[in-house]
Give the backbone structure.
Amino acid sequence: MTPTEMKTEAISERYADLDKWATEAAVEAMWEGQLAAVAAVRSEISAIAQAADAAAERFLAGGRLIYGGAGTSGRLAVQDGVELGPTYGWPAHRLGYVIAGGMEALVKSAELAEDDSAAARADLGTIDLTRNDVVVGVAASGRTPYTLAVIDAAAEVGALTIGIANNRPSAILDAADIGICAETGAEIVAGSTRMKAGTAQKVVLNLFSTAAMIRCGRVYKGLMVDMVISNDKLRRRAETMIARLAETTPGDAAAALDAARGDIKTGVLCALGASAADAKILLTQSRGVLRDAIAQYAVKAELPSETYDRRIY
């Protein structure tokens, strides 16, 4: 597929005189394009869910999440990854980034680097991939040499590979174990894939990573129970979570959080009556899934089921 055949590189006659339009009309057209970009993700919901389920299996087995890409796509991938720590408590040592031009390319363009397949393999080689790892490659064109090399090299060691693109057919969709394609078509500003294509990529990444975190038990009853408490606001939010989930008073929730040394899941179990030590054992046995840990504690403590059923379910 040549650049002129890629829909994301096409020139739309509708916007040939865009520079003559009134600013408000141009902004409205761009807004419509953003809505269309979000809508383009709808057809890929099943593929995103499949990717999240498959990734969660690897994560629960100890696997890492590795993002790869170049240019705008690479920057969006990194943005998705860095937010998983504070939001879901995803540990930094289980995250990795393979970006064309290195991390400096996040703030400075490195366009030539996207063609360097050898550099991609070398960069990925520093991560020591295993079969439990998950590698997400993002490329609007679906054919960026650097990103394709990341996917190919990851597949060689048996890691789960997920390809995200905005053109079909494309090489990355064929190469990855699971391909996700939000076909956003021609950009209002021809070739500016930071617009519609970038918006669709961000939506796909949001949905994938959030669904994977849910499947890993890092969300319970719609709450971020693995959230990292890094300031007073988040401390108050954590206490509110514990009070709500354990159906206890704010004061008892605060004491439970202290006993748990700031860990929300442990704090919930402490508020329900478990010791901090027992709570940690229960969470380990349940692979960090709070719902399962609460159920195990109810059985272990021989507590009336009607007391805990409403908290679990």
